Automatic annotation (TrEMBL):
SMART domains for the chain: PB1
Gene Ontology MF terms: identical protein binding
UniProt-listed GO biological process terms: COPII vesicle coating
Record's signal peptide: none
Name of the molecule in the record: PB1 domain-containing protein
Native organism: Trichoplax adhaerens
Alphabetized SUPFAM superfamilies for the sequence: CAD & PB1 domains
InterPro entries reported for this sequence: PB1-like, PB1_dom, PB1_TFG, TFG
Domain PB1: 15-97
């Protein structure tokens, strides 16, 4: 079986990538609006993990720093710092409350 290798046609240079984990499910996708707010990110996570994450589910979004600590993204200011800190790929983990 031959796999489709059209990924080489997608230009991701300069784009922020989000790598999101919810339990054992991991997704990766580019962000087209780099000025994304926390609320927009949360809505995006609900779409990406539909069926596993509902609009009424309370979720905490965290990223890992250089010490291995999980840092909570609480608002758009935290998200802005996380994007600057992570450079090209923002790796986040979602936790249910």
């Amino acid at each position: 079986m031959k796999l489709d290798t059209n990924f080489s046609q997608i230009d991701l240079s300069g784009k922020l990538l989000i790598k999101a984990r919810l339990g054992e499910d991991v997704r990766m996708f580019p962000i087209h609006n780099e000025d994304i707010t926390y609320d927009e990110l949360l809505l995006m996570m609900q779409r990406v993990f539909r069926g596993k994450l509902g609009t009424s589910d309370e979720v905490v979004i965290k990223y890992r720093d250089e010490d291995g600590d999980l840092i909570t993204i609480f608002d758009s200011s935290d998200l802005s710092f996380a994007k600057q800190y992570s450079k090209r790929v923002l790796k986040v983990t979602l936790f249910g409350k």
